[in-house]
Fold this protein.
Amino acid sequence: MDKKVHELLNQQINKEFYSAYLYLQFSNYFKEIGLDGFANWYMIQAQEERDHAMLFYTYLQNEDQKVTLDAIDKPEKEITCTMDVLKAGLEHEQYVTALINDIYGAAYDVRDFRTMQFLDWFVKEQGEEETNAKDLITKMELFGSDAKGLYMLNQELGARVYSAPSLVL
Ligand code: FEO
């Protein structure tokens, strides 16, 4: 495998674990303020991020490439209110999309079609993640300022259930 592609794929393991860490922090914030539904939504988000990390990990192993695990950064986002969290979530997903695009670009440059095919799933997933994050912001803007609306939204987010990724390696 090309050195740069390998390096970026390995880095992405860490980035995905960091994402899980960030969403755990968000989940914990909501738990603390009593919004259990929001806490559930971000807990499942964290689970999905761990799955993403493991997909990169497994892909490298399957390709007989060295896996190096680095330290996971402390979540740097300051949390002050619900809307800040939701916006930070969207911003983070847009950042992850850019990372995936960078890996894709590096694989494209060296005609690494197998890695491009592996990344196709993530390209689609990032589109969904960004849509979900935007939907949350829209719903919060529409209903979040009213106690009854916030209660209903919290109920809705509490109903989210985890499902394993559709990509199996
Ligand atoms: Fe692993 Fe939310 O992107």
